[in-house]
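Task: complex structure prediction.
Instruction: return C-alpha cells for all chains below.
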Amino acid sequence: MLDLNEYTITAEVHRRFAGAPDLRLREILTALVQHLHDFAREVKLTEPEWMTGIEFLTRTGQLCSNTRQEFVLLSDTFGLSQLVVAQSHSREEGVSEQTVFGPFHVEEAPKVAGLNSDIAKGATGDPLYVSAHVLSAGAPVAKAVVDVWHADADGQYDVQDANWTIEKSRMRAVFETDADGRIGFWSVLPKSYPIPTDGTVGEMIRATKQSSMRPAHVHFRIRREGFDTLVTHVFANGDTYLDADAVFGVRSSCIGNYESRPPGIAPDGRVMARHFFTLDFCFVLEPALTC
Amino acid sequence: MLDLNEYTITAEVHRRFAGAPDLRLREILTALVQHLHDFAREVKLTEPEWMTGIEFLTRTGQLCSNTRQEFVLLSDTFGLSQLVVAQSHSREEGVSEQTVFGPFHVEEAPKVAGLNSDIAKGATGDPLYVSAHVLSAGAPVAKAVVDVWHADADGQYDVQDANWTIEKSRMRAVFETDADGRIGFWSVLPKSYPIPTDGTVGEMIRATKQSSMRPAHVHFRIRREGFDTLVTHVFANGDTYLDADAVFGVRSSCIGNYESRPPGIAPDGRVMARHFFTLDFCFVLEPALTC
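Output:
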C-alpha cells in the first residue's frame, strides 16, 4: 500500500503479519505493533527522540555479554520481568512465591557442591550459614537441584569482576537436596546494593532520579522433575530497601531472618571464633501440572 | 511497595518515574511502560516468550556496527520509522514528502563531489544519469547539501561489503546545488532488493512469511539553512514492489521515471556507446519554521 500515514500504517503492518503460520507469534507481534504504534502516536514521538531510543537499545544490546545482561536489567527496572513472573505463577496459599531471575545467573555454574561446603571462597563479608529445606505438600523433596547465587558485602557478584571465569566462581554453587530435602552451606552475608549503573539502565535511573538500590538477598533456583521450577530470592528482614526494590521483586513471603550469632558452635558443628549469621528457610514447591 | 502483582506493578513503576526532572522524558517513559505492560498482560506473555524477546533484542543490538543498524531495520519493518516520519512532517501541497532514513546512510560520507562526477566507481549496473533540481516556493535553492546513497544492480550497498572503508565508498556522495539549485551525477541503475535477512529482522521476516523486498530507489537527504531538512527516496516507477515495500516507505509523490535511453548523447554531453538511463527529479523544500 502506498502513502501510508501515521494512522493507516498500523493495519498494513498487521496485514503483513497475517500470514505467520505460528498463531501465537502472530498474536504477539500484532499486539506488540499495536502498542508500539499507539505509544508513538500518543506521545507524538519525534524523529530525534526515535533516534535516541534506537541508540539506547543498540547500546543496551552491546553491553550484554556472557556475564552481563543489560536487557534483562532494563526489563527488571521497567517492572516487566516481575509482571511476567507474577502472571505466570498463581501460587496456592503456602507455596513459595517466584520473583525475578535477575541478570547475574550463570547457567554453566559450578558442579554440585557438598553439604556444608564454603562457597564464599574468600569473598568479603561476615560468615553466613544457610540451611534450606525443600518441601512439597508437607513432604521433603530429595534430589532437588538448587542453584544459589548472591553478592558480597560490597554488593558485587563474582561475574562483575572483569577477570571472572567459571573456575573463579564465588558465592555461586549448585547443590542437591538430601533425603530430608535439605541443603546447608557457608557463604558471606549479602548486603543491599545498587544495580549496575555504568550502562544504559544507569542512564535511565539517573535521568529519572530513581534509587538504584536492591535489598540484600540470596537467589535460589530449585528444580526437580515433577515440580514447577522455583526461581526466587530470600530477602533480608529489616533491610532499608525492602519497600523500594529497584526491580520490584520483593514478596513478603520471600523475606527471611538473617540472624546474628555470637561466637560459638554453628549449626553444622563448626566452631566459630567470631560472630556469624545464620539463615534458615523453607521452600515449598508446587507439583508440575500434568497433561 | 511489596507484593506487586501483574496489575498493581504499573502504577508503582509510574511512581518511580514521577521524580524525573525532564517532563518530556517522564511523559515518554510513563506511556512506554503503560503500553509495554498492557502488551504483556494482553497476550499473557510467558517467561520463555519473555526470554526469547530478551535474546532477540540482545542479538539485534550486537548486530549493529558503524555500517549496519539492525534496530533501525527492525523499526522500519515494524512500521514505526514511517509512522514517526509521517507524524513529524505535515507537508503542504506541492512540497516533497519525507520517507524513512533506512539503515545504510553514512554520516561521514565522501566530500562534496563535482558536477557530473561518476559515483558508481565500478559498481554493477546499467549507467544512470541523475539530474536533480532543488526548489522552494518556485525559486531555486543554491548551496543545498545533497547526500545521495543507493544500492547496485544486485541490491547491495557499498557498506555491506565486509571490506568497506569510507575511501571505498561507491554509489554514495555529497553534492552541493549550483546557483540554479541543480546537481547532476552518474551512477548505476538501482534495482529492487531484499533488506538484509541474515540477522534478527530476517528471522522475523521468515517466521511471518513476509516479503523482504524493497522497490528500487535512490536515497536523498537535502539540507540547507532556513529549510526543513528533506530525507526521502526516489522510487522507480513501474517497480513490482512499489505496493509492498518491506519498510512501508513508498509515497506516490516520491516515484520518479528512470527512463531507458538508446546510445547517444547524455544530458551532460557525454557520448554513450551503450544504452543508459536517466532520472530527472525535482525536490521542493519547505522553509524552516522560525520562532
